[in-house]
Design brief:
The protein is mainly alpha-helical. The chain has seven helices and two strands; from the N terminus they run αααααββαα. The protein has a two-stranded antiparallel sheet with strand order 1-2. Helix 3 packs across helix 4 and helix 4 packs across helix 5. The protein is globular and about 55 Å long. The two termini are 21 Å apart. The mean pLDDT is 89.
């Protein structure tokens, strides 16, 4: 979405795109560390799948693959790990017995709450410490921009 639809905007440089990607990668790694995710032993993908099951469940594997933007095979691998850990379980779909609906164990909800609270706590402290009060509105704008980037539909997949 262009802020000035009638006006041609300069293309974003590859360097700017790379800086954004690098900053997001570093922040994700820091959030995993600060939340205690490393100690839990779940990968970022497995945690993402678990969070989706907690939020969306009961949910099919196909729906999880769509939510996580990964293949059915990747979902199956993550679900196998989560099942073995006792964090999720599957039951036949009452509307279509060929499908399984995945649900979260109560311990999964406790775990995800703990991890998400750790992330939020770190971010709140970091914002308080490094973002000046007159820059707080900039943080809100950055969040809006990141949400729009995450939702962008560019009409295709990977290059």
């Amino acid at each position: 979405m262009n802020a000035n639809p009638g006006q041609q905007q300069p293309a974003v440089s590859a360097e700017t795109a790379q800086r954004l990607q690098d900053a997001m990668k570093r922040l994700r790694a820091r959030l995993r560390s600060e939340s205690g995710q490393h100690a839990v032993g779940l990968t970022a993908t497995q945690l993402g799948v678990l969070l989706s099951v907690v939020r969306e469940g009961p949910v099919t594997a196909a729906r999880l693959a769509a939510l996580e933007h990964v293949s059915a095979q990747a979902i199956a691998q993550s679900l196998a790990v989560l099942k073995a850990a006792g964090l999720v379980h599957g039951e036949p779909d009452p509307e279509d017995g060929r499908k399984k609906l995945m649900s979260a164990d109560p311990s999964a909800t406790e775990l995800t709450d703990k991890l998400l609270n750790g992330r939020s706590s770190f971010l709140a402290r970091a914002i308080d410490q490094v973002v000046a009060p007159d820059e707080r509105e900039d943080v809100e704008k950055a969040i809006e921009l990141l949400e729009r980037l995450a939702d962008a539909d560019l009409g295709g997949g990977a290059i």
